[in-house]
Amino acid sequence: MNTVRTAAVVLAAVSALALSACGPSEDGASDAGSTAPSAGTTPSGAPSKPSAAPKAPLASATPPAPSASSPATDADFDVFPCSTYDVTFTAHLAEPTTSSYLLKITNSSGKACRALGHPVVTFGDLDGQATQRGEAPGIEDALRLEPGESAYAGLLGGTHDGTGSTVDSIALTMDTESDLEQKPLTASTPGLYVSPTVNSVTPWVDNAEDALSL
Predict the structure, then answer these.
(1) pLDDT score, position 14
(2) Is 175 helix (H, G, I), strand (E, B) or coil?
(3) When comparing pLDDT for 76 and 41, which is higher?
(4) Highest mean pLDDT of the ranges 22-26, 70-74, 119-123, 179-183
(5) pLDDT grade, residue 77 (50/70/90)?
(6) Where are stretches of biased composition, namely Low complexity (predicted)?
(7) Is the CB of residue 168 less than 8 Å from the CB of residue 143?
(8) H helices of 1-45, where?
(9) What is the CATH number of the domain that holds 179?
(10) Is residue 145 domain-resident?
(11) Dist CA 61 CA 64 (whole Å)
């Protein structure tokens, strides 16, 4: 009787060991597999990997074209008014009855200059200067003289009416629209009669005919 009981106990123990050695049931294995994260997914709550920063655009190799509104350069901005240091001067009798003289200046410098306004003419030892006759262009439109080029003006002394005086020379300076000191240029004018009310001089022009007809 003890032997049979002992054998039964041993058999039960062996059966229990066999059952514990087996793995989890197929249902348990299936459940475990469904909850394990796959290799290609990110676990919930983990920070995502930041995307790559966008590349900066490449700089253009061609510089931008200059703006069309850029101010243009004035080609005459450095052409200054003619002074007596830039020119030579002559005076020729044109009409004895009216004591008319043709005044001529020639650019003797090595650069261009502008003959502005009217010549400033004084008569020998007489006080005052010749009055201006005719309208002169503004400085932007004043006559431009290249080296060797000439400008002309007409000087009128007036008819001999007994009210004036006779002089043998005149002196000329240029209008420079500044206080630039100039050395007066002189010319001989034998017997030039100067009327105190009629004498006058024209603005500088580019030809002798216009100078005597203004």
Answers:
(1) 42
(2) strand
(3) 76
(4) 119-123
(5) low
(6) 40-72
(7) no
(8) 2-21, 26-35
(9) 2.60.40
(10) yes
(11) 10
pLDDT beyond 50 at 156: yes
Domain range holding 180? 87-213
Whole-angstrom Cα distance, residue 134 to residue 29?
Answer: 120
> What's residue 55's pLDDT?
53
- Which phi and psi (to 5°) does residue 41 adopt? -115, 160
The residue written with tokens 């003959």 in the block is 115
* 31-45, 66-80, 138-152, 171-185: segment of lowest average pLDDT: 31-45
Q: How far is CA 107 from the centre of its chain?
A: 30
Report yes or no on 74 lying in a domain: no
**Cα–Cα distance list, 2 to 5, 7, 12, 14, 202 (Å):** 5, 9, 16, 19, 162
R_g of the chain computed on alpha carbons: 56
Strands (E), the chain: 87-95, 100-107, 113-123, 131-132, 143-145, 150-156, 165-175, 185-194, 200-201
Percent of the chain with pLDDT over 70: 64
Residue 177 in domain: yes
Asked whether residue 40 is domain-assigned, the answer is no
More confident of the two residues 45 and 193: 193
- How would you list the strands of the sheet with 131-132, edge to edge? 87-95, 100-107, 150-156, 200-201, 131-132
CA angle 29, 31, 36 (to 5 degrees): 95
Q: What is the DSSP letter of 27?
A: H
Count of domains observed in the chain: 1
Q: Which amino acid is at 86?
A: D
